[in-house]
């Protein structure tokens, strides 16, 4: 039976334009093509968990607008086991304007978080039963911190394994990090959290030490395409990146590579099985002080 994963996080309506290069300030540039799609770190990660075989309950907040109606149709079609959609009457659904340039799919993104940042204490209180049923609770930082903290507290109280993907980065208190079982920054986010440049496995190990000292129990730092295959002993584990070419229209190809590499590494090393399909192995995960993937 698959593990139960509760994902609290953002939903965004993405508007994507493909261009040969990014425009300079003041320039109007003819795009090679365009598309709209569902996005938001929370909805994306919930979808990934579902595809990995988990029983997923997604919790998010949208506006009562055209983008919100799109969100309802999209999330219904994904096939989540359960969806809780909170609604802001006066605030728009989160949305993102995205340029994707060139064959390497570099991107430039402007995000209006909209309703994602307006989750109230009472709304989270109504979601406590769903959070309490989960084996794994996954949150990001694309919602207001007060709501994120409540979800983390509820997950810990229920005995779930709590994962925090600290993106998009915003300052968080050490007290919050100490409640997280698994912290998963990328190299940029790890650098912002530690004040260090994270551009190698050695630098990632040092950053993981700092994050551990700040209260994080276990850390996965994803280095993406800049990482190098390496074998490490003891509490540090690394694996080679599982690389592939992202679709040209995708707004975050490098993010896809990092997540694919991290999932492959967890399956083969720290837990011995998929982190989602069976739920993260809490005993083995907590034995490892730092998990570093390239």
TrEMBL record:
Stretches assigned to coiled coil: none
Residues in Carbohydrate kinase PfkB domain copies: 4-227
GO biological process, any: D-ribose metabolic process
CDD domains: ribokinase (cd01174)
One Pfam family from the record: PfkB
A single GO cellular-component term on record: cytosol
PANTHER family registered for this protein in UniProt: RIBOKINASE, SUGAR KINASE
Name under which the protein is recorded: Ribokinase
Phylogenetic lineage: Bacteria, Pseudomonadati, Pseudomonadota, Gammaproteobacteria, Enterobacterales
């Amino acid at each position: 039976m698959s593990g139960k994963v509760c994902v609290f996080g953002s939903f965004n309506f993405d508007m994507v334009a493909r261009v040969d290069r990014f425009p300079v300030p003041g320039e109007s540039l003819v795009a090679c093509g365009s598309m709209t799609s569902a996005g938001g770190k929370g909805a994306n990660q919930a979808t990934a968990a579902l595809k990995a075989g988990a029983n997923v309950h997604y919790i998010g907040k949208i506006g009562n607008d055209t983008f919100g109606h799109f969100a309802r149709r999209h999330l219904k079609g994904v096939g989540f086991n359960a969806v809780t959609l909170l609604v802001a009457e006066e605030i728009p659904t989160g949305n993102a304007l995205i340029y994707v340039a060139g064959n390497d799919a570099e991107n430039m993104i402007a995000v209006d978080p909209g309703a994602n940042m307006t989750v109230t204490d009472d709304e989270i209180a109504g979601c406590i039963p769903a959070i309490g049923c989960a084996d794994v609770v996954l949150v990001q930082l694309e919602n207001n911190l007060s709501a994120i903290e409540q979800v983390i507290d509820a997950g810990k109280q229920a005995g779930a394994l709590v994962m925090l993907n600290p993106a998009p980065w915003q300052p968080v208190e050490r007290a919050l990090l100490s409640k997280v079982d698994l912290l998963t920054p990328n190299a940029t986010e790890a650098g912002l959290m530690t004040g260090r440049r994270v551009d190698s496995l050695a630098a990632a190990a040092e950053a993981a030490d700092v994050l551990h000292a700040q209260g994080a129990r276990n850390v996965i730092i994803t280095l993406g395409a800049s990482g190098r295959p390496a074998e490490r002993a003891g509490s540090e584990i690394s694996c080679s990146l599982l690389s592939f070419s992202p679709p040209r229209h995708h707004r975050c190809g490098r993010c896809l590579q990092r997540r694919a590499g991290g999932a492959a590494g967890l399956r083969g090393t720290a837990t011995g099985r998929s982190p989602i399909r069976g739920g993260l192995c809490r005993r083995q995960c907590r034995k490892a002080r730092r998990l570093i993937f390239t």
